[in-house]
Every structure is written in C-alpha cells, then in structure tokens.
Amino acid sequence: MTASPLRVVRDRITRTEVLELAESLFGDMVKAVVEVERSVMVVGGELHSDEEAWLLVDGSAQGDVWGINLSRFVTE
C-alpha cells in the first residue's frame, strides 16, 4: 500500500477520483471521514483516525465527525 496525502473535499469528488484513491490504498475501497455540520470530507488516510485528526485540528467538533468506507463495488 502506498501512502497518499489526505484529500480535503469541500465541494465534490468524482467516482473516478475515488477509484484512483482506492487503487492506491486498499485496492477496493477508500476510508473517509465526514464532518456533517460543515459539509467537509477528508479521504485518503490509512486509518479513519488520520482524517479525523485533520478535521479536529481544523476546528471540527468530535460529535460532528463520522467515519465511512467508500467501496468501488457500489454502483451509482
């Protein structure tokens, strides 16, 4: 697995971008953490805690931060 920099998504991310991140990390999925109040998502960490830490330093409240997995097998 190749370490990749975290990607902060404030607007949108394409399916192609998610697939590219997945291939560079776990092969079939990418971990992300969503901040529900500010509508910010951070993707590309090896652990959910990588993205969570970025959001907390950026001013997010712990209760507004949720970890998710985005799988390449989910269809639109």
Strand residue content: 25-35%
* Total number of domains: 1
N-to-C order of helices and strands? EHEEHE
Unreliable residue stretches: none
The N- and C-terminal alpha carbons lie at a distance of 26 Å
Backbone structural class: alpha+beta
CA radius of gyration is 12 Å
**Total number of strands:** 4
Number of helices: 2
**Biggest sheet, strands in spatial order?**
1-3-2-4
The backbone outline, from C-alpha atoms, is: globular
Q: How many strands, which pairing sense, and closed or not: the largest β-sheet?
A: 4 strands, antiparallel
How much helix, percentage-wise, in residues? 25-40%
Give keywords.
76 residues, 4 strands, 26% helix, alpha+beta, globular, 2 helices
Description:
- The chain has a four-stranded antiparallel sheet with strand order 1-3-2-4.
- It contains two helices and four strands; from the N terminus they run βαββαβ.
- The N and C termini lie far apart (26 Å).
- It has one domain.
- With 76 residues, it is α+β, with helices and mostly antiparallel strands.
- It is globular, with a radius of gyration of 12 Å.
- The mean pLDDT is 87.
- The longest helix is centred in the first third of the chain and has 10 residues, at 15-24.
- It has helices at residues 15-24, 48-57; strands at 7-9, 29-35, 40-43, 65-71.
